[in-house]
Amino acid sequence: MSAAAERLSLRGTLSASPRLAQRRLWGARTDVALADIAAGTALGSALPTLAGRSVLLRTRDPLCAALALIELDGLARRIVLCPPDLADETLPGVIETAGVDAIVFDEAPPETASGLLAARITLPVALLAEPPLAGLETEWVMFTSGTSGPPKMVVHTLGGLTGAIKPPAGEPPIWGTFYDIRRYGGLQILLRGLLGEGSLVVTAPGEPMADFLLRLGRLGVTHLTGTPSHWRSVLMRPEAAAISPTYVRLSGEIADQAVLDALKARFLGVPIGHAYASTEAGVGFEVNDGLEGFPASIVGRPGDVELRVVDSALQLRSSRAADGYLNAEAGALRDSEGFVDTGDMVELRGDRYHFVGRRGGIINVGGLKVHPEEIEAVINRHPAVRMSLVRGRRNPFTGAIAVAEVVLNDDADNEAQLKAEILETCRRELAPFKVPASLKFASSLAMTAGGKLERAIA
Amino acid sequence: MTLTTEAPDVSVLEQDSCEAGDRSGLKAVISAKFLEVAAAQEKALAPLSDDLVLLESGLDSLCFAIIVATLEDELGYDPFTEAEDVFFPVTFGDFVKFYERGR
Q: What is the mean pLDDT of residues A416-436?
C-alpha cells in the first residue's frame, strides 16, 4: 500500500512512528502503551461493527475516549465527542441531530441513549490480527461551550483539527493538559501528543488538581497546557513545586498580563505561550512574546489563518475552522466571505490588540459564562429599582466577576437595607457565580444614542 | 516597625498602638470577610492561621473572587490587579501580607 495514497488516520500515523515503543498514554489508574493501541483494540469484537457508523462517544474516563478516538478515526463515518458535563437529557436530541446509530461507553450506557448498537471500552488492549481498514474521512463532532439552550454541535475533520500542529523539534515532549481532552483545547493537546513523537498524561474523572500535579511531576511532564483559570489555581498550590515544565501554554480564556507574569516568575526561563482558539474557528494564532493581547501586524495578513476586526469583533478565516454546525437552528458558521465571527471583542492600544470581553458583555467567571442581562432582570424585579447595569470586573481568581450598578426610583435613606434585599433576591434566584460580588447605587447610567444601556467593554 | 527616639513617650506609645492597630485591623477585616463569604456561600471554613493553605481552607475560587471584589469596595484597592510584581498567594498569611504591602 502506498503511503502517499493513504489518508492521515490516527491509527495509521501512530503505526508509522519510529519511536512508538517508547510512547505512552497515562491515565490516573492505568496507562496504555501507544504501540499496543496502534496494533490493538479496547473495543473487542465490536470494533468492525462500528465501521461506517455515526458513533456517540460517551465515556466517563477521558483515557477511554482517547483510545476510542484512535480506533474510530477513519473507521466510523462520524464521531460525536461528548464532553463530561453534557447532560443525559440532551442525548435524545443529540442522537437525532447527528444521526447517531452506535454508542461507545466505558461504565454503563446512559438510559437516554437506548436502542443503539453499543460497544464497551475494556482494558487491557487486545492485539488485533489485522487492524480494520481506516479509509474514511471521519467527521469529528464537538460541542461548543454554549451558554444556554440545546448544545451546538460543530463538525470538524482531522485535517482541520491538526492544521496548526507542527512536527516537534528536539526531545520528544511529554504532554500534559488540565483540560478535558473532549473539549477543543484538550483535544488539541491529545492530537499533539499522538501525532508528534511524544507521550501524553490525561486527567481522570474527579481527580483533585493536587493529585494531578503530583502525577504530572512524577511522569516528568515537559509541555503543560490549560486555561488561565487552571494556571491561576496551579500557582496557588504547594504541589506546583512538583512540576518543572519546559513549555507552558494557555488558551481558552483571555490570558492577562498578571497570569503571564506570574507564570514567568514561577517557571524561570521557560517559554510561555498563549493561543487563541475556539471550537468553531479552530486554532487561530499563538502569541509567544510574553505579552497579553496580540500584535496588530498579524491582522489582515494573508495565510492559513486570516484575521480581521469588524466593529471591534475579531473574525477569522481559516482552513482549521469547523465545516459548520450540525444543528439547523444554529445557522451559518461562516459569513459569505468565509469568516467566522468569534464574538470576542478587541481594542487596539498602540501596536497591539487587547481582548476586552465578549460581544454583548458576556462575563466569563472562571470559564462559566454569565449574561449581564439575566442578572439585571433579577435586580430590576425589586420594586425600589429603576434600572441596573451589570458588568465584569477583572479578578485575579476567576478572570472576571459580575458587579452591579443600580439606580433607584427615588432617593432612599435605607440603602444598606435595599442592598441586602436585592442581593438576597439574587442569591435566591441565581447560581452562585452569577450573584454580583459588588453592588453600588448610582444616580444614573449612561445610554447610547439608540436608547440602550451603554455596555462599556473594559 | 520604626519608632522615632526623639518623640515624647506618650506619642511613641500612641503611634505604636495606632500602627499595630492598623496592621491587626487589616488582618481582622480580611478574616471577617473570609468568615462572611464562607457563611454566604455555605462553605465550612478551616480555622484561619497564617500557614493555612488557601485551597485547603474550604473556600473555592469563586469565594476568593468575591473576597477580593468586596475588599476592593471596602478598602479601595485590589492589590492583585494593581501590583507590579505578580504573585499568587498560597497561604492565608501570604494573602494578608499582599494587602499590607499593597495599601
A: 93
Residue (of A361, A360, A372) closest to A435 by Cα position: A372
**Average pLDDT over every residue of A434-452:** 77
Q: What is the ipTM of this complex?
A: 0.76
Put simply, whether B15 touches A (Cβ < 8 Å) is: no
Look at the pTM and tell me if it is higher than 0.90. Answer: no
pLDDT score at B53: 93
Q: How far apart are CA A390 and CA A379, in angstroms?
A: 10
Q: Do A265 and B85 touch (CB under 8 A)?
A: yes
Contact, A139 vs A99, CB < 8 A? no
All domains in chain A, ordered by first residue: 10-346 (3.40.50.12780), 362-441 (3.30.300.30)
Give per-residue pLDDT as tens, A114-130: 889 999 999 999 999 88
> What does DSSP assign to residue B44?
-
The pLDDT value recorded for residue A169 is: 77
User: Which amino acid, residue A187?
Assistant: L
Q: Which three cell numbers stand for residue B65?
A: 473572587
Q: Which residue has the cell 477580593?
A: B68
Tell me the CATH number of domain B9-102, given options 3.30.750, 1.10.10, 1.10.1200, 1.20.1250.
1.10.1200
Residue B68 near chain A (CB below 8 Å): yes
